[in-house]
Amino acid sequence: MSRYLRPLLSFATGFLLAGCGGGDTTGPSSSPASKLAFTVQPGTVTAGAAISPAVQVTVQDAQGNTVTSSTASITLAISSGTGTGTSGAVLGGTLTGAAVSGVATFNDLTIDKAGTGYTLTATATSLTSATSTSFTVRITLGTLGFNYATQSLGIGQYMRGCGFDEFCPITNVSLPAGVANPVMVTLTHSDASKVTTPASVTIPAGMQAVNVSVVGAAVGVDTIIASTSGYAPDTLIVTVGLGSVEFYNWACARPMSCSLESSVRVGETVSSGYLILVGPGGGGREQVRVAATTTFTLTPPPNFVFVDGSGNTITSVTFAAGAYTSSALSLKGVAPGTGAATASAPNYTTTTSPSTTVTN
Cα(first)–Cα(last) distance of the chain, in Å? Predict the structure, then answer.
């Protein structure tokens, strides 16, 4: 062969070979439908919840190409056989669907029992069936629950909840049933500078709840999230503001019904009452507690003073940690006139008592 023709022949041969390559095994096909294939596999899911993303089964020809003209009716079922899921499990949702452009989509499939090694089988008349990859169905999530959805606290305050002791902290994280083994619950915050909690609490075996110490730290809002494996989380929104106290009379049947003595004589001493702790805006009366010892300064008017049980003048009163009331306050008239006392402490609004008149 002439040396001049050889390059041309080589070029022509390469062109012909390039034009005769194999077909696309993933594209549409006009060949007859032959088999089914899972093209979106089922993934891990919680028992009773819809499998997501939606499972898809595709009609293919013998070479694995999608037969876009197919509208075959495709049915899904849990595969039978030892080691496949949990015995007696039920596949719920729409189990039979027609292919659209060769693809059937199943968007509401559920399985009612937890287990591992589940597979699904897809069948259609005259087509080779397909089996999915294996997947896990998790237990249905229990629910953690704070016994409040929202709460208001003063700085340095917590609130009595509904726990196992009289003066439990603000709330409980509780499970719907007693746990067989201890369960650790993690507490996270949207803004941990506003509220103080432990990083986690543990619900003891056989119990449903545990007290959680939630203490106001700074003015603002914090969302506390309680979470643990196998349970849906819950949130508590805590708004922190400035707390206050109120003056109340010991003689009242209930402390909120009346306040200090309205009239005393000069030199007379009466057991006038005490201070009661309240939350921001006056809420949480008889429920909020101080997390640490807190001292309030008492400033009486010129016409009376506060005295202790020995008759000594006092200018402050202290709340012990966990308390919501102060010790008793006695009032002694010292000069004629009418006036009111105040009580103040850091991070608390100053409170003014009702007026008391002192006469001769």
Answer: 142
| Token duo for residue 200 | 């986690």
The count of domains in the chain is 3
Q: 234-262, pLDDT tens digit by residue?
A: 888 999 999 988 887 644 434 444 555 57
- Kindly state whether residue 204 falls inside one of the protein's structural domains: yes
CATH number reported for the structural domain that contains residue 283 in this entry: 2.60.40.10
As a whole number of angstroms, the distance between CA 325 and CA 271 comes to: 15
Does the bond joining 53 to the residue before it have cis omega, within 30 degrees of 0? yes
By C-alpha distance, which of 188, 197, 199 is closest to 215? 197
Per the CB < 8 A criterion, the answer to whether 170 and 144 are in contact is no
**The pair of three-digit structure tokens given for residue 210, joined into one six-digit string:** 């545990």
256 with 172, same domain: the answer is no
Q: Which two tokens stand for residue 349?
A: 């609004």
pTM attached to this predicted model: 0.59
65, 116, 178, 312 from 39: Cα distances, Å: 12, 21, 43, 87
152 lies in which domain range?
A: 142-241
pLDDT given at position 261: 58
If asked whether residues 69 and 85 sit together in one domain, one would say yes
**Could you tell me if 36 and 60 are in contact, meaning their C-beta atoms sit under 8 angstroms apart?**
yes
